[in-house]
Model the fold of this input.
Amino acid sequence: MSNNNIVSKGSKFNLKNIYGAESLAEMDDKFNTYKQINNFMRDYSYNQNNSTCIKIVGYDKDGNPKRASGGDRVVYACTDSECDFTAFWRRKKQSNGFFSLVKHHPHNTMCNSRPKPSYRQLSHPGMTTENKDNSSY
Done:
């Protein structure tokens, strides 16, 4: 697959060519690892001009965040605490361990999160200098 198929015009990822689908609703039974879900969620959020991360559900006694992932589930939330975006993935036992999107709430119209491209995303030649300046470390 050529790099032109990965990053489309305007420095957006061609999710159809990378993952086989473009929307969250189309992603059932496409992923069998957390890394695959994480890469998709980062690329999907980047294309939506938003940012997501694994949801923090609490803190341990040392103040470290507890994240909503592990075992057979992972939950993503918007990085803007005022936004209702969530994507809840659960591993389906009847489909050879692939994850399925159980529920999803879209970003609010007033969402203030902005994408911060990862090093993986920056390695694609279609990324602009402006996007590289906002990279996450």
